[in-house]
Give the backbone structure.
Amino acid sequence: MMKKVLLIALCFVAFQSIIAQERPMSIDLQAGLPLGKVDDVTSLNSGLSFTYLFTEIAENFHLGARTGFSVFTNAFKSEIDVFVDQSFYFANLAVVLQYDFSNHFFGRLDLGYTYEIDSDYYGGFIYEPRVGYSINNFEAFAYFQHFVVYDDFLPMAVGVGVGYRF
């Protein structure tokens, strides 16, 4: 499965490099705190994503796509009552809707599909609203991330991230 995710990400980046002169692409790093039941067994959410905004569907309103990887890990937990050394790895693909409030401030909503790697469970739904500030080729943002993977386990996180646009 990891090979498929990596292949999809590489194809996405390779295809976008052909038309990158006219289209905004970005690579984002994010880190946050888990919420809900996942907070009982993990202490850190981190992620890496590639985004491509391929069209402006209205003034200041953009449509695009994102692929990425998100991890919930117990990096800072010294004692865990329920599970021992539990981490969750998600690969995701989403549609991106972004509105630019001004030259620097933006709001964004990512809606898509996520798959928990190395588990017996199938994929599910992801949504991730964010608000951010961009200047030149850099952006900073705050996000809320929610995975709807299966009924009794709904990983969520809130955090901050930085991105580089090219």
